[in-house]
Amino acid sequence: MISLLSKQRLKALAQEEDGYTLLELLVVLVIITLIIGIAGPMVLRQFGKAKSDTARAEVSRLATDLEFFRVDVGRFPTQQEGLNSLLVQPDGVTTWQGPYLPKASQLNDPWGRPYLYTLSADGQTVTVSSLGADGAVGGSGENQDVSNQD
Known about the structure:
By secondary structure, this protein is mainly alpha-helical. The chain has a single domain (22-147), classed as Glycoprotein, Type 4 Pilin. It is 43% helix and 7% strand. It has 2 helices and 3 strands. It has helices at 4-16, 22-73; strands at residues 116-119, 126-130, 146-147. The longest helix has 52 residues, at 22-73. The termini are far apart.
């Protein structure tokens, strides 16, 4: 059994450590705020870089899928057929072996805009591109255009 003296000691210790002072809580909040202020921008930069890297990988994959289309059909999709021909069989094309993509969302870049498709005048070269985060031609960093011709 716990003696009366031991019970009194335990009770006294418990009363001494009732919680944290307001000053201690404020110091912890200031430290957390400093950490977020320093680390936050670095994390956001990495997130933007990840989207650009994803766009590069997806552009390359779409170019490969277009090559599969070309092997099956004997030509690249026309400008009018575009990238949608990787999902839906174009009219009058009998040798189509698609779909070449599992879902339509793969035709959009990481910023939610459709990838751009351009067929050269001679029909031998395709360009798949994204305009980056800003959706405008040119730019640098996260706003830089991404293309399979880069």
